[in-house]
Design goal:
Strand order of the largest sheet: 7-6-1-3-2-8
Distance between the termini: 27 Å
Strand content: 15-25%
Shape: globular
Order of helices and strands: EHEHEHEEEHEEHH
Largest sheet: 6 strands, mixed
Number of helices: 6
CATH class: Alpha Beta
Length: 181
Amino acid sequence: MNIETITVGAGCFWCVEAVFQELNGVKSVFSGYTGGHTKNPTYKEVCSGSTGHNEVAQITFDTDVISLEEILEVFFSTHDPTTLNRQGYDVGTQYRSGIYYTSEAQKAVAEKVKKEFAPTLYDNPIVTEIEKLGDYYQAEDYHQNYYTLNPNYGYCKAVINPKVNKFRKQYREKLKKEVEK
């Protein structure tokens, strides 16, 4: 088993977490914050837009099962990387599209997928930032595994359900066996 971790921002971290938790080869997904200037920010502070942080998901995966390139293809396929600081109704710098790498090899893969794969999906320019991971802060416990624990919450039903259902159809062959539907 070869374990690697990548951190991505693609709008609300609940949505990102919900998608990647179902992907075969993914060992864990934690919601958190990165890219800002405030130490140990709270959700309320991040949502205010004053901390500079991005809502992110930190994804740990087994490279013997799924490659970083495949992870990033799912990333680009499940959000709109052409809208600056916005995903749907979520607006602000905390919802920006970003890939936060920990090695030069990860950076190279991220740049390749952004340049070669993402433009095949979108007509507008890709605005995803690719930056070295700085300080990462895990979000409060109530944000972890949010979609699974709160499936009847309005946001989950209205926003996350359609995203997860689309993902399941598009990536059926890459789902964990227990979530195949």
